[in-house]
Amino acid sequence: MGKIMEQTKQATILVVDDDDASRKLLKKMLSVEGHAVRTAASGEEALASVVEQLPDLILLDILMPGIDGFEVTRRLKADARSHPVPIILVTSMDDRESRLKGLEAGAEELLNKPVDRAELLVRVRNLLKLKEYQDFLADHNRILEEQVAARTAKLRESEERSRLIAETITEVFWMTDAQIGKMFYISPAYERIWGRSLQSLYENPRSFIEAIHPDDLARMLAVFELQKTGQPFDHEYRITKPDGTLRWIWDRGYPIHEPTGEVLRYAGIAQDITERKQTEIKLQLFRQLLDHSRDGIAIVDPGTSRFLDVNEALCNHLGYTRDELLQRGVLDIQTDIPDVAAWQAHQQELRKQGAALMELESLHKDGSRSSDEISIQYAALDNHDFVIAVVRDITERKRTEARLAEHIQELRRWHEITSGREKRILSIKHEVNELLAKAGQPPRYPSAELPYKKEE
Fold first, then answer.
1. Continuous segment of H or E residues that includes residue 282
2. CATH H superfamily, domain 294-393
3. Is 20 helix (H, G, I), strand (E, B) or coil?
4. Under a CB-based contact definition with an 8 Å cutoff, are residues 130 and 254 in contact?
5. Closest-CA residue to 334 (of 287, 380, 298, 293)
6. For residue 11, what is the DSSP state?
7. 39 has which bridge partners?
8. What is the Cα–Cα distance from 404 to 379, expressed in whole angstroms?
9. Helix (H) or strand (E) holding 14
10. Whether the predicted pLDDT of 96 surpasses 50
11. Closest CA to 444 of 453, 435, 452, 454
12. Per mean pLDDT, which range of 90-94, 166-170, 241-245, 289-293 is the poorest?
C-alpha cells in the first residue's frame, strides 16, 4: 500500500485566492485534516508556485485580478507536467455557463462560496484518491513497458497493492472501456452499495444500469453515451437495491488517454451519498425556514465581523443583496460599534455571557438608519466559533414610545393646570358662602362646604 496510503494521509495542497480571509479559512480547514497547505494570492503567483513545486491538488478561486481562475486552469492543463494535478474551482457564481466554462477549461470540480467544510473535505479526499489511482496506473504501465523481464514479479506486486487498496476504501473504484463493454476492475464496495455481486458485473458490465431509478435512467444513459466521446462526467443518481432500499450515488468518471490521444479506458469513483443528500434536504428546509422568517438572521465570523450567511429578511431590511452583504461585515452597518477594537471587546464580553440582547443603530445601503433590537448567541461547530444574530427593526416602536412619553408629559401638565383651577373655584364658592352666612342667609353653594380645607 506504501506510497498510495501515505499520500491519502497527507497531501500538498495549493490554495489560490486574492482574498486573505478566504485563503486563511481554506488553509485552516485543510490543515486540520493533516494536509500541507501552500497559498498564493494571485494567478501569477499560483503559476510560479506550481513551476517551483508540483502540489497534489489545487483549490483555485475564479474571480481574481490579473489572470483569473479559468485562464490559470487552461495553462496548467496545457502543460504536460501539471496536467495531472486535480483542480477545484471555487466561485460565488452559480450559473450554468460559468460551471461549463470551468469544466471546459479542465477543472475536475467546482465548489460554491461560502465553502461548505464537509463538502470541501469530501471532494478533496476523493480527488486525491483518484489521482493516486491514476498515478498508480501510469506507474504500472511504465513498469510493464520498461521492465518486461520482471513482468511477473511486478504484476504480483501490483495485484497485492490493488487488493490492499480495494480492502481499505469504502467507495466503488471502477475501470471500464469507453463503451462499457468490458469491466477491467471493480472494487468490493460495489457489493455492499449496489447489493449485487462483482461476478455479475464482470459478466455483464452494463448490469449496474438495471439498478438505476426509472426517473434518472434516461439522463444517465445520455451521460454514458457522452463517455464514448472521451469527456469526463460528474453526476448524481439514485439506485434501487434488490431489497428495495433507495440509495443516492455520486459517480465521477475520467478518461485515460493513449499517447496518441485516443481514449484507452475510463476510471472513476462511485460513492454512496445517501446520508449527505438527506442532510442537504434538511439544510434546504432550514434555509426555507430562515428565508420565511420576518426577522433578519445573520451568521457572523467573530474574528473578522464578516457575514458568513444572511437570510432574505435581513437583506430586505438593510437594502443589500445577499452577495453584497457577504462581502461586508458588522462594522460596515452598525454605527454603535465604531472600530475593530470595540468589536473585539464586544466579542470578549459575549463569550463570557454566551448570549445578549441589545439595541443598536443600523446603517442601510441608501444611507438611512434604523433602530434594531438584536438577539445575539455564541455558537461553536466543528472547532469553529460563530455568532448568530436575530435582527428586529424596532424603529417604529421607538418612535411610538417617544410619542407616548410626550403625550404622557403633556397630560401631566394639563392635569396640574386643571387641578389648580378647580381648587381656586372651590375656594371662591366657600368665600361666597361665608359672606352669605354673615348676612344671615343660607349658603348658595352647599357642595363647597364639606369636605373643604382652606388653602394656607
1. helix 274-291
2. PAS domain (3.30.450.20)
3. helix
4. yes
5. 298
6. -
7. 15
8. 38
9. strand 12-16
10. yes
11. 435
12. 166-170
CA gap 174, 256 in Å, rounded: 13
Q: Which fold has domain 1-121?
A: Rossmann fold (3.40.50)
| Cell numbers linked to 363 | 446603517
- Is 169-292's fold the same as 294-393's? yes
Domain ranges of the chain: 1-121, 169-292, 294-393, 398-448
Q: Is the pLDDT of residue 380 over 80?
A: no
Q: Pick the range with the lowest mean pLDDT from 215-224, 320-329, 403-412.
A: 403-412
pLDDT at site 151: 64
DSSP assignment of 96-165 equals HHHHHHHHHHT-SEEEESSPPHHHHHHHHHHHHHHHHHHHHHHHHHHHHHH-GGGHHHHHHHHHHHHHHH
Closest CA to 13 of 105, 91, 109, 88: 88
The angle formed by the CA atoms of residues 356, 362 and 363, to the nearest 5 degrees, is 155
* CATH, domain range 169-292: 3.30.450.20
pLDDT reported for residue 9 = 54
39-43 average pLDDT score: 93
CA distances from 165 to 9, 158, 268 (A): 14, 10, 14
Q: Which three cell numbers stand for residue 289?
A: 425556514
- Residues contacting residue 387 through CB under 8 Å, at least 6 positions apart: 299, 300, 301, 302, 347, 350, 376, 377, 378, 379
Kindly give, in sequence order, each residue whose CB lies less than 8 Å from that of residue 61, ignoring residues fewer than 6 positions away: 16, 17, 18, 19, 22, 69, 89, 90, 91
| Cα 155 from Cα 161, distance rounded (Å) | 10
Whether this prediction's pTM lies above 0.90 is answered by no
